[in-house]
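User: Could you check the structure of this?
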Amino acid sequence: MDLVTGVIRVERGWDPAEGPISLKSNGGRRKVPITPALRDYLDEQLARTRRQGPDLVFGLTATKPFTPNMLQRRADHAWRDAGFKRITPHECRHTFASLMIAARVNAKALSTFMGHANISITLDRYGHLMPGSEEEAAGLLDSYLTAQRESAEERARRKSHAARTGAPPPR
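Assistant: Sure, the predicted structure tokens are below.
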């Protein structure tokens, strides 16, 4: 995690039985942006725990992570204390993706942040959340084609004017 540049670097996975493991794909190695609000919280957590460098920001110790059950228990307490409905850490991942889409982050960037091996995984899983409809698509295409037609007509008018007058086409 690099709070100065505002990214979390995902460089390995974790298996409860094996410990640190390689990521499933090269796409798994990635940088995920940290919002300023989260950065402030993480900065406070690091100051409170005096962890730094390769230390775990959250964990039983600086080098020993929480077990999945312990992580869920801690999350359950946090959700309850905040008055929120319980969600799992994996649901937090989906929530992150949903919020990024709502913020209009492009699909390719989101695919990278999620660590998907290719963009089709992102589009298959989250495409239904992405803005746009048939009506919007038709409107966008119509606007583009209209602008292209008007530009071509303007070029033709200039060329015609130059041919009639012998003067260079006006710009």
